[in-house]
Amino acid sequence: ALLRRAGTVATNQGESDPIMALGKARQFLRQQAGLLALDDPDDSLTLEKQTLDKLNTRHLKFKQTIGDVPVWGKEIIVHLDAGGEVYQLNGSYLPDGFNVATVPSLSEVDAIEAVKAELGGRVLNSPQASLLVYHDENTAPVLAWQVNARPSLREWFYYFVDATDGSIIHRVNNIHHGSVASSTGKNLFGDTVSFNSWQQDGNYFLLDPTFPLNDVSSDYDPVRNGLNSKGDTIVLDANNTESDLYFITNASNAPTGWDPTAVSVMQNAKIVYDYYLSTHNRKSLDNNNMNLQSIVRFGQNMANAFWNGQFMVYGDGDGKILGPLASCLDVAAHEMTHGVIQHSANLIYENQSGALNESFADVFAILIDDDDWLLGEDCTLASPGYTRSMQNPNSGLTYQPKTFSDYRNLPNTEDGDWGGVHINSGIPNHAFYLTAQEIGRPDTGKIYYRALTTYLTSSSTFIDAREALEQSATDLFGNNSAQHRAVSAAWAEVEVTGESSASRPTVTDPVDGAELLVYLRPADQQVTSADLYRQTVSESFNGYDAASDLGPLNSVPVLPTTPSVITDQSGTYISYVGTDLNLYVIQPGENAVNKPASDSGTIRTAAISPNGRYIAWTSALASDDAIHVVDLSNSSSADYRIELPTYQQESTSQAATVRFADSLNFDYTSEKIVFDVLLCTSLPDNQCQAALDTGYNFWSIGTLDIAAGGKFSFPFPSQSPTVSLGYPKFASNNNFVSIMDVVSYDTETGLFDSGAYTYNFETQTLAPVARLSSASQEFYTSPSFWGGDNYATFAYPDLERARYVAARVAVSQETDWTGSGNAIELNPNYTITPTMHRAGVRVVNRDLQLSRTQLDFGNVAQGNSKAMALTLSNTGNSDIEINNISITNDYFRHNGTNGRLPRGATMDITVTFEPGDAKDYAANLIIDSSGDPGTLSVSLSGSNPQGSGSVGNGSSGGGGGTPLALLFVLAAVAIRRFTGCRR
Questions:
Q1: 509 in a domain, yes or no?
Q2: How many CB atoms lie within 10 A of CB 810?
Q3: Are residues 384 and 286 in the same domain?
Q4: Is the separation of the CB atoms in 1 and 463 below 8 Å?
Q5: Which of 325, 556, 867, 942 could serve as a FRET partner for 629 with CA atoms 20 to 30 Å apart?
Q6: Percentage of the chain with pLDDT > 70?
Q7: Which domain holds residue 157?
Q8: What total number of domains does the chain contain?
Q9: Can you give the three-state secondary structure of 918-981, one letter per residue?
Q10: Domain with 922 in it: what CATH number?
Q11: How many helices, marked H, and strands, marked E, lie in the chain?
Q12: E strands, 81-223, where?
């Protein structure tokens, strides 16, 4: 999904005209075509509908097409503020680059016959087919027939038939079962309800042609000719079948002659309709006075209700779990809201979008039947007396998760509940409850209705829903309003965090090579020194082989700190810190030589970047609170003093004191460092002093972004002193996931809980990889990822052998980077600070290219302007941050945007020249980024033929790097030169 800010607020009221709004939206899409990866948005995006809401903002929904063929589930919404300026774009679409045929080999008739054969000939009506392009995350786009088939009143499917070979690609279930919803059907309890009926041929029919639209014509004959196309309400009787429908009649129109079940349905339908009309000004389910049609007594003792795309259908209940479903107001509200959803966001009924479909139906059921937070409490017979709870989704007839860490990844099949649509809906349900508890149901209802009808699209996910609700709260009540804060807090509490998928970082490709386990073995009982070893392991590990375990490799005793490993075309190099506090580098082999990279005797920990350009190190001086970085490309050094945010400890009036950093690890781009740092917090009874045994000391983690000029970030600013985090390392193929030790101390039991965890910086989620049993001492496992990020190695404390041993555990990226399965032992020897490294050559390519390096606008008269375009392309294998785009004088302007440019993406930039009274103009368009080169410049020139004088330009810079081959030449010189330097 894409959710992006654009443009500025203007006051051109003429843009409120729908034609002008369409032109503005089209212009914006053309300008963003490169960013969207759409060659011709005018051709591939077809306007589906345009709406103007109460805030005088317009919303234009575009359906994606290839040729004239629509793409299934792919829509983009462009939002214009009251001044007619684009302020947001969101949706889901298919980028250009796929070669999809638009002429079917299979006929429509043959596609329908294929579906009939799949259903064994069971069809309630003649199926209808339409041509589209089908695409999901697991398949390439393919031309297909979408066949709309109803085998029975209980079933309604969309079949997708390959338009080339006639195979069934996919099936979507469109029956929205209530799954046990809750409500009050008062007529089943003996209450009197007033309603209109239809008298004809000596009978009274449970049919109201005056509601929701009073437009009865003189020739209206529903018994023989059917209902009006819109505006009628009717309740029909299936008479305990699944195929037959009968009018519900009363020969005398006496109060006792009407079926109480049917009257309850009639009443509930009107209550739901009135809610949508009075609260949201919505006229029936489709906002166009759609007929309200219901069926009662469907099937034999069916304990369910559902929306089948045209009817609300109710079972009688089984008498054990559920009573008559028609008695429940919130069942009616839930099923009718499925109709509202179908005619607004039309959330696809599978996976997260399907769970949102169910959740929004529950939300409005609770808003309409608003006396509690329960669903189905008035028609549920079995314990606990309700079907679902918004307050506690874990309860109810069936378990539902209430936080995203408990999300159930189920198959997209009928047995898998179409990806868990009725199960995972508990997560957004609980977010609604938390929001409504904070700000009340009326405001919450307005926010949810706006999100549903304005921002959500058919493929929306949970994160999309959060952003849609936050934006809706901002639209209605203002940014950072109580309502906006409540929405954000609620979704954060259910652990739906991060940004929409369009702005997330990408994962780079793994390198090929052998997996190496580099580790230290203690050389003495006190573990004050160690020896260096390197073991070759494989994913198909069949047991420890001493022949693959080489060492000792070191020529001097090793300080027990984490070694660093890098590989280039000339081989693999390992660096370590000796007990003499100097850095050494070795290339293992028969004639391996340990080469010193420093001689100052002040280094405690160090790490070398994967590309060999940087050496980061910490000082052995306890008072040194900096991370030092040597840049071997120019023999320069920078000392980054660690500074915490002032809100480090919310429970005290003082920020934590930084003692020193320890473990260092570079990401795969060689631009970011993740580290642990010893902090101290003071309380009145124990103040932090220079001595390390004063104050309350604990370890935390942070990141240092070298490319961003030494920017620090701390993911746990309010960490408790009873929790310590240590030995962090980035994933091998991304820099938004790290693995680390987490140790927590229970002040009541006096026990420590230790283990290896992953942390996702984007989603802010901590996930267990290997948990150790509670113990009276703390354990640090120094975990690290394998080259494919599918395994992690850690030092496991074997208490029987009184040593740490190296173990491996699988890591599942599909389940939030959690450990999976049992750990296996890799090495029986005493192992500390194990570090995994895949010995392959990684080339991080951040090529940033411009389609043009010069724009000459020629002669432009004063008062006129001229626009020219260029394209910025990320042709590398890693994301690039566009930090700034600027022009060196004001007579040229551009529409480029800062932010992440994903690998393979492009940005179209339009530069406009508007001269003043001078004659000649020159300027530079300067693009600063993390790409290569770091600075790009485009020469701009233009003239005003009637002007005089000139306006000059500015200048631009560049960037470069150093190969690993220079490491041994420059390292010793650089570290000797800069050791101990402080900023």
A1: no
A2: 17
A3: yes
A4: yes
A5: 556
A6: 89
A7: 108-173
A8: 5
A9: CCEEEEEEEEEECCECCEEEEEEEEECCCCCCEECCCCCCCCCCCCHHHHHHHHHHHHHHHCCC
A10: 2.60.40.10
A11: 14, 55
A12: 86-92, 128-136, 139-152, 155-162, 168-173, 176-177, 198-200, 203-205, 207-208
Q: Say how far apart CA 344 and CA 456 lie, in whole Å.
A: 8
The answer to which of 376-390, 589-603, 746-760 has the lowest mean pLDDT is: 589-603
Q: 469, 503, 537 — which closes off a domain?
A: 503
Query: Could you write out the DSSP letters of every residue in 804-868?
Result: EEEEEEEEEGGGTTEEEEEEEEEE-S--EEEEEEEES------BEEES-SEEEEEE--TT--EEE
* Alpha carbon distance 549, 682 (integer Å): 46
Whether 564 and 609 share a structural domain: yes
Catalytic residue among 335, 470, 515, 671: 335
List 135, 422, 484, 894, catalytic entry: 422
Higher pLDDT: 518 or 506? It is: 518
- pLDDT for the residue numbered 652: 29
pLDDT of 718 strictly over 70? no
Determine which helix (DSSP H) or strand (DSSP E) holds 449, and give its type and residue range.
helix 441-450
Do 839 and 917 belong together in one domain? no
621 half-sphere exposure, CB direction, 13 A CA radius: 13
481 pLDDT more than 90:
yes
CATH at 677? 2.120.10.30
Q: How confident is the model at residue 948 (pLDDT cuts 50, 70, 90)?
A: confident
Distance CA 402, CA 946 (A): 70
Domain membership of residue 408 (yes or no) is yes
Pair (267, 390) in one structural domain: yes
Please name every residue paired with 518 in a beta bridge, in sequence order, or none if there are none: 534, 835
Task: Give the per-residue pLDDT at 412.
Answer: 62
Directed axis angle between helix 482-493 and helix 426-439, to 10°?
A: 150
Structure tokens, 815: 């389940």
Q: Are residues 644 and 584 in the same domain?
A: yes
Indicate the pLDDT class of residue 763, thresholds 50, 70 and 90. low
Does 915 share its domain with 836? no
pLDDT of residue 269: 96
Residue 663 included in any domain: yes
> Do 883 and 910 share a domain, yes or no?
yes
CA–CA distances in Å: residue 460 to residues 29, 51, 92, 470, 815: 20, 20, 8, 14, 20
pLDDT above 80: residue 204: yes
- Beta carbons of 535 and 822 less than 8 angstroms apart: no
User: Same domain for 791 and 859?
Assistant: no
* pLDDT tier, 956 (very low <50, low <70, confident <90, very high otherwise): very low
Contact 522, 560 (CB under 8 A): yes
Sheet order of strands, 906-913 included: 848-850, 866-874, 906-913, 892-894
Most confident of 121-130, 511-520, 694-703: 511-520
Half-sphere exposure of 135 (CA within 13 A, CB side): 21
Q: What is the CATH number of the domain that holds 148?
A: 3.10.450.40
Asked if 645 and 714 count as a contact pair (C-beta separation under 8 A), the reply is yes
* Count of residues making up the chain: 983
Which of 92, 119, 145 terminates a domain? The answer is 92
Q: Is residue 25 over pLDDT 70? A: yes
User: Which residue, chain included where needed, has tokens 């449970």?
Assistant: 206
- 177 in catalytic set: no
Query: Is 980 a residue whose pLDDT tops 70?
Result: no
Three-class HEC string of 7-22: CCCCCCHHHHCHHHHH
User: How far is CA 413 from each of CA 100, 170, 335, 400, rounded to the nearest angstrom?
Assistant: 27, 10, 22, 18
Residues 6+ apart with CB under 8 A from 868: 855, 857, 910, 911, 913
How far is 126 from 124, CA to CA, in rounded Å?
A: 7
Which tens digit of pLDDT belongs to each residue from 726-743?
A: 999 999 999 989 999 999
What mean pLDDT, rounded, does the chain reach?
Answer: 85
Q: Residue 660 forms beta bridges with which residues?
A: 678
Q: Which residues pair with 832 in a beta bridge?
A: 520
422 carries an active-site annotation: yes
Indicate the pTM of the whole model: 0.51
Decide if 964 is inside a domain.
no
